[in-house]
Specification:
Layout (H helix, E strand, L loop, with lengths): L1 E6 L6 H11 L2 E5 H8 L5 H10 L12 H8 L3 H29 L4 E5 L14 E6 L2 H12 L3 H10 L3 H7 L2 E4 L4 H11 L8
Parallel strand pairs: 1-3, 1-4, 2-3, 4-5
Length: 201
Amino acid sequence: MRLIGITGGVGAGKTEILSFIKKHYNCKIYLADEVAHQVQSPGEKCYEQIVALLGENILAADNTIDRGKMAEAIFGNTELLSQVNAIVHPAVKEYIKQAVEKARKAGDTELFFIEAALLIESGYKDFVDEMWYIYASVEVRRKRLIASRGYSEEKIAQIMNKQLAEEVFRENADFVIDNSGTLESAYNSIKERLEAYTWQE
């Protein structure tokens, strides 16, 4: 089983790339954001720690953590954000490691993908077999984010300024997919890279 990390800046098109991969290859795909929600659900270790840190006012009516309230509680407080990340990131990594081990033991998956914007910062480079960087130019990403998510120029700038520079992504990548143009072009580069693996129509 080949373990592949997928990362890239906001608006680079990681979702479309992963949808294509999921459709055509014998694989498992884990999104770090989704795992983060999972490990913060009631009954999980992270849930107790975050509620203890931020208080019960971040909870929704059903006692789950309200992401909006949590964001408000953390907003502008880098120390609190660091503390939350110190709780969540190791738990996400452990969850994914267990999923990888389970898939390896089952022996019926050819490719296992882990997607996260912070894969490099979170130290996944030494964990995965190879790291893929989904690239799209800043201008293309900006247009996509305005069209698909309705983000303002200010919000886009804020998000992009917090993410790694393109040079850092490229330095840490074993494979770069240029997704600035057509999706078909990006798909073709994936097909070439995964030529040795089973293709599913």
